[in-house]
Amino acid sequence: MIPGGGQPNMQQLLQQAQKMQQDLARAQEELANTEVDGQSGGGLVKATVNGSGELRALKIDPKAVDPEDTETLADLILAAVQAANENAQSLQQQKLGPLAQGLGGGSGIPGLPF
Question: The domain spanning residue 85 has which CATH number?
Answer without folding.
Answer: 3.30.1310.10
